[in-house]
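Components:
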Amino acid sequence: MAVPILMPKLGLTMDEGIVIRWLKTVGEPVQKGEPLLEVETDKSAVEVESSASGVLLQIVAGEGAKVPVGATIAYLAEEGEEAAAPGREKIPAGESAPAGENTPVRGSAPAGGSKPAVGRVKASPLARKLAGQAGLNLAGVVGSGPGHRIVKKDVLRLLEDRRTVVSQLAAPPTPRAAFEAIAGSTAVAPGTQKPVSIAPPSMGHGEGSYREPVTRMRKAIADRMLYSTSRIPQFFVSLEVELSRALSQIEALTPEVQNGYGAKLSVTDLLILATVRCLQKHREMNAYYLAGESLQDTFIEYHDFVNIGVAVALPHGLLVPVIPHVEQKGLGEIAIVRAEAVRKAREGRLGMDELQGGTFTISNMGGMGIDHFQAIINPPEAGILAVGRARKKPVVVGDAIAIRPVLELKLTADHRMIDGATAAAFLKDLATLLESGRLDVTYGGVGDGDVAEG
Amino acid sequence: MRQKFDMAIIGAGPGGYVAAIRAAQLGSRVALVEEAQLGGTCLNRGCIPTKALLHTAEVMHTLASAGEFGVVMEGSFHLDLGRALKHKEKVVSQLRRGVEHLMAANGVEVIPGRGRLAGTGKVAVTAPGGELVVEADKIVIATGSRPAALPVPGAGEAAVIDSDAALAMAAVPESVLIIGGGAVGIEFANIYHAFGAQVTLVEMLPRLAPGEDEEISALLAQELRGRGITVHTGAKASLFKRDSGGKTVATLSTSQGDVQVIADVVLAAAGRRPNTEGLGLETVGVATGRGWITTDDYQRTNVPGIYAVGDVTGRTLLAHAASMGGVVAVEHAAGQHTVPLDPSRVPRCIFNRTEIASIGLTEAQAREQGHRVATGKFPFSANGRAITMGPTGGMVKVVAAEDTGELLGVHIIGPQASSLIMEAGVAMTLESTLEELTSVVHPHPTLTEAMEEVFLAALGRPVHIPRGRSVKA
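Structure:
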């Protein structure tokens, strides 16, 4: 007999859902657990898995239909069963169905093999097919074809983006979690799964204006940053670090690093090392938030290693080369590896593998004369550290005013996994370690003791 | 005298005048600068007048084969070249008047004279009445191309003409040697041969219509030879001499040694050159590559505000590509969302008696690009409508991606191929795959059923030919 598929309850507060798109056509076989349709709730768009195996016999709730939780949205025929269909009227797109209507009624058979109605996704058949083969969700994507239709080119670009992002996520627990990141990284507005519709600037834009297509790098930055700011709740904690001892330490170590590694030691290098020590202590900050669709497939992934991304400004964009396994490096090695990474970034010689796998990012705008700023999280990392300019200024020492070198550190943290106290503890430890001037700069030097003392 | 416009377009061929109309539709004040006649090469010296003469040739063929269809001719018929040329002139002037009317109706200011870039946002127009400067925010160069001279020793003294001269022929020569086995050479071979000349067609590359699928080229050569046209491929004209009787003796170098061909007229139909002389490209620094203006996907040159479309860009030298390029350019210039011209979706037609039309990749190109290819073929000899039209040759061939069913290329040699190809044009532009195309109902009995069948054949299930049997056209 026909098995009814009901509108699932996808969240505690959900009492109705809108069918976005059927992922199977009538007549197509469906396995239990296979994605069957997409449903939009008041919170998000969710792929719903089939609760049974069989052949999709009839779609009751068409695309766009608003249906109460528990109402029948489709019927499956059990395998081998003749398609004797319950003949309930289809709920027309955009209209609502009464609740609790889940008793199949015998009636005329539906037309077999009919295609799903064209939903809100405007895409060419080829684009749909390619997306289907790759398991890519096109909902919310704005295409480049006529009338912003999604065409092959757009899907290929999305797939390319996905490859990049997926490889940046170090072994996510579920492919879907990684995928969620990408779906969001395309032109999707915060939380809505609807195309961002930005009215094109009026024609005949003023004299002296002209347009240039954006570079791939620009687009990648735009997509990642939009994703980050629209999907990640970010908060900021900052403090000022008194640098006298750190600078003395750098001064003392400079000849050694220069001779031993041929690299010029900078504040950034010391910062990287101190950050690594603190990340090893505060493991929550050295983690990924892998958002799934439900409690069961959402994870926080902690790392035993620390890969530090360093933001490098370029003439028309920025890159974040990653220094891998900084926890196994001493200060001299960090200095030379960082200098090399920055140089390669500027010369455009970084390989894909040198841009991937970061677990925490440091952005230093001190060299550009900036005192303090806040950075945007590089997903799926837990935080990013914004470093301002080291400068002398009057500070209160005891009860007197003294002139001391200081710089401001501002930590941006992902509130989904980091709470204020965690962020504060991390940043405070980092400041203490820098101010102590006693950072162990050799590989294997464990900062725990120092930090604890501070 | 100075005039100020939003857009100035140099050249009123199918690239320029279509761009002018689209720009006017978008609300721009448009100046269209043309030194000769509206319609450019296409309307005045190319596509249209050759089709007029080819139609004369077609009528002659119909009369010649009338008996086969039960129409008995009492007496004979012959060509009246003067009247054929008059027909051609009538067609051309009617269409030209149409373009003039369109310009007026769209409020496009047509400025007669030779346009030249004269600094940023300035086009100097030289006309018999003097010079004026047109100022415009955006400039579109659409000056087109012209036949290239034959780089063959002795070409100067031999009776070498180009297609412009051939269209104005005063008499039909007894014998013609056509250098160039592309669309122009093939179409003139048809005209001359129908009009009674002995025709030798020479192509330097190993096959005629070298841009087409190899199987199409092979069927074409077979068909031309069957009609009595001499075809030399892999042959290069290496020397022209004039003999005492005024005929040209041409030496063709082939892999089998030299061949001599004697002809009254040599038609140069190999290659074209961009019309950029005296255009002032250097005054504003417009970049070129081997003479052709370099443009990006949106038809922009390297100079902000200056676009180039059509033949002069050296990309897809076809009237319809120029028109679409013109639309892309002006839409982009107006800040509109526009979709760049994709050369792989521009149909190509050769108006041979058995027409040739194609779009996209040939089978060899698709394989070269690493596609896993599924092909389908369907002969017109299995199409009812084609059979009613007389002896049927030709076929449709589809090249598709095996995994997705994406159409990569469609190739037709057969009756009305130039119209049939558009089903593939629409399908490819909308990115339909074999799956959708095989569910399109085609009217019976029509030539279009061959399209349905070829899509089915690519999936291994044609209806009107046995599955898996090799297709012979």
